[in-house]
Specification:
- The structure is a single chain.
- The chain is mainly beta.
- Strand 11 and strand 12 form a beta hairpin.
Length: 539
């Protein structure tokens, strides 16, 4: 998709210059707090999987946690987000309890609400078990699973993606169990008219003890390829041929290692996805480093071009441009370690962390995920245009993770959910019919992403982004708060004028909505010596 991203790269470059010279972070190179402002009340459930998504459709991202691991049978949780404030106690608790690994969200039935799939790692006695899915009915997850696989396996991770190019989400599952050396085939359960098949139509020809899986267009040919990493084995890529996935991997890393988790991210902004992997020394023979495999014009190197300076029980990696300098930084964590971020400077990651949490929050880290929880850094991207050729079906947003997808326009028509599927965290849209001329995306993205961490040994927590990217009350984004901001806000609220560039800047009284009360608050501040505007969230 390199050609299709040229306009996006120009926008990204200009936006990066704007951020570097005008919106400099005022707290740190990596602007995250070192002690988490949010912590869950639950512990002792061995939280493992973590994913953000708007479960109830209120415009704010909820935190979904799957629990149990290989220690205890436990239910799964959703921590709901109400107007930018994440509940500390789970508001949804599944009625069933399992030894669950990671989880995934996706709108499989095209009703606008996200379903929850959960990989169950083991059964009692380390036996095999099924994969399960909870339906989302008008913003409420069913308490018990509505779908289970007909076959059983050991699975630590699953991921939604469009395997067959029909514009709906299929479920890929990484299978196997390393400690007892259960080598198993990986699977894909195809989506048939909004319902997952119970017996997989795709089974890998090879076996392994595989612990993570994800989708990404490795070669930029417009479809989603499948990457799976294995403990006691290689990282593997199964190419997508448009309507089918090869059953034997056409790419493998040269070395075997105890691979625990993976993440896609374009480190050098060349338009191709690079692959990050966390390795873990718990099983003998592992080197235990965080690694990145470079993508050279659609072909991954078989040896990593970057690795961390230290090794250990690597357990999690995820990419995000947390410092808003135009390139993706790498969050990485270990069991009994500190949550850390390796800064990306011009396409090169630091070998040692540029940020780590306070030592009081050392934990057995399982997953690290990014989102703007309180909505205080949201902006709206309007009519982001990508050229189309009538062949490619997969396109990436210029900026992600995406907070909310507002609309997709093709040939001057707004598409319906039946025309595509998507993953806002990974930043891709997969079309049912390939666009012919151009695609326009309208979506919300944040310049203040927060970092949430699921922990096996203690409560879960979130490190908020401290970067001050705008002045509260500066609705017209001219770097000052004056009467012109009052005029701008009145125009937006009552005359159909342009909305604030930073959506939260209009919430001057911090009640998580923009209304006439914010106009009054701003006038009181400017002309009567009232308190300073302090926005904390945005719709």
């Amino acid at each position: 998709m390199k050609i299709n991203r040229l306009s996006g790269h120009l926008f990204l470059t200009l936006n990066s210059l704007f951020l570097i010279f005008i919106l400099q972070p005022v707290y740190a190179v990596i602007p995250l707090e070192t002690s988490p402002s949010w912590r869950s009340t639950e512990s002792g459930v061995y939280s493992t999987g973590a994913v953000f998504g708007d479960i109830d459709g209120n415009g704010f991202l909820d935190l979904v946690i799957s629990n149990g691991n290989d220690i205890v049978k436990a239910p799964n949780f959703v921590y709901f987000n109400f107007k930018g404030k994440l509940d500390a106690t789970a508001g949804w608790v599944s009625s069933n309890s399992e030894y669950s690994g990671h989880c995934a969200l996706g709108d499989i039935d095209k009703d606008g609400y996200l379903e929850l799939a959960v990989s169950n790692y083991i059964n009692t006695g380390w036996d095999k078990i099924v994969i399960q899915l909870y339906d989302n009915v008008n913003g409420s997850l069913t308490l018990s699973p509505v779908w289970s696989s007909a076959d059983s396996m050991h699975s630590f991770a699953c991921s939604f993606g469009d395997a067959d190019g029909d514009g709906d989400l299929d479920l890929a599952v990484a299978c196997g169990e390393a400690y007892n050396k259960y080598y198993e085939n990986n699977r894909i359960y195809f989506n048939q008219n909004g319902v997952l098949e119970t017996t997989p139509s795709w089974i890998s020809a090879d076996t392994g003890t595989c612990y993570d899986v994800d989708w990404g267009d490795v070669d930029n040919d417009g479809d989603l390829d499948l990457v799976i990493i294995c403990a006691r084995g290689q990282a593997r890529v199964y190419k997508n041929h448009g309507d089918s996935i090869e059953t034997a991997p056409s790419w493998q890393s040269r070395d075997a290692d105890n691979r625990n988790s993976l993440a896609w991210g374009d480190i050098d902004n060349d338009g191709y996805l690079d692959l990050a992997v966390a390795n873990n020394t718990q099983i003998a023979g592992s080197r235990g480093y965080f690694e990145v495999y470079s993508n050279n014009s659609g072909v991954l190197d078989t040896i990593p071009f970057w690795e961390s300076s230290t090794s250990g029980y690597g357990s999690s990696v995820s990419f995000c441009d947390v410092d808003n300098d135009g390139d993706r930084d790498l969050a990485a964590g270990r069991w009994w370690g500190l949550s850390s971020v390796y800064e990306n400077t011009g396409g090169n990651l630091t070998s040692t962390p540029s940020w780590s949490c306070n030592s009081s929050y050392e934990s057995v880290i399982e997953e690290m995920v990014w989102a703007d929880l309180d909505g205080d850094g949201l902006i709206k991207i309007k009519n982001e245009t990508h050229l189309a050729d009538g062949i490619k079906k997969v396109y990436y947003f210029d900026h992600y993770p995406v907070h909310k997808l507002d609309s997709i326009i093709v040939a001057d028509s707004i598409l319906s959910l039946n025309d595509f599927c998507y993953n806002l965290t990974s930043g891709w849209v997969a079309f049912k019919v390939p666009p012919i001329s151009e695609v326009k995306f309208n979506y919300k993205v944040s310049l203040k992403t927060d970092l949430a961490v699921s922990n096996w040994d203690r409560e879960n927590f979130c490190f908020f982004n401290l970067n001050k990217v705008y002045r509260y009350g500066d609705t017209n984004n001219d770097q000052d708060v004056t009467v012109s901001d009052v005029v701008f806000l009145i125009s937006f609220l009552f005359r159909g004028g342009e909305e604030p560039y930073f959506l939260a800047s209009g919430d001057t009284n911090d009640d998580c909505q923009t209304s006439v009360s914010d106009v009054i608050f701003l006038i009181n501040h400017l002309f009567k010596g009232g308190p300073e505007p302090l926005a904390g969230c945005a719709k």
